[in-house]
Specification:
The chain is built from 6 helices and 5 strands; from the N terminus they run αβααββββααα. With 149 residues, it is α/β, with parallel strands linked by helices. The two termini are 16 Å apart. 42% of the residues are buried.
């Protein structure tokens, strides 16, 4: 399943209110709960924090990809958040993260999860795309940019 198929305005939060890594993760999990994409908040949140404890999912150029495998989803699920002010996500380049792609996959499915991570990595190679995405002001705009991406 392509990232474009997962991102609708309902699973995008612009701007994120969270000021810390944990607050951003919780906020994005809440977005998925509110959108009806998950039915349980705490176990999903805990799975994401457990994954983060293994090593930060903060990449470079202001992008972070918190992700986890959990029985709380039956298929790949995603949310996107934008924090214009930036959040310290212990990224690889030491910069603040502004774009957050949260991914959840069932424990028995690796293919779609890996494909989505690869797609995000491809998108992250375009500074122009990242700038446009960081400047988006609504979930609809983010979904359109991902579709065009």
């Amino acid at each position: 399943m392509a990232l474009v198929d997962l991102i609708t305005p309902e699973v995008v939060k612009v701007p994120l209110a969270g000021k810390t890594k944990n607050e951003v993760i919780r906020e994005l999990v809440q977005v998925l709960l509110d959108a009806g994409r998950i039915t349980e908040l705490e176990s999903v949140y805990d799975a994401l924090l457990t994954r983060e404890a293994l090593g930060s999912t903060g990449l470079e150029q202001g992008v972070a990809v918190p992700h986890a495998k959990t029985r709380a989803v039956r298929q790949l699920t995603a949310a996107i958040g934008i924090a214009p002010q930036g959040v310290d996500f212990q990224s690889a380049d030491g910069e603040l993260s502004k774009l957050f792609f949260l991914l959840l996959a069932p424990p028995d499915q690796s293919g779609p999860h890996i494909q989505a991570l690869a797609e995000i990595a491809r998108l992250a190679k375009s500074p122009t795309f990242l700038r446009l995405l960081a400047g988006a002001s609504s979930g609809r705009e983010v979904a359109e940019l991902i579709r065009e991406g």
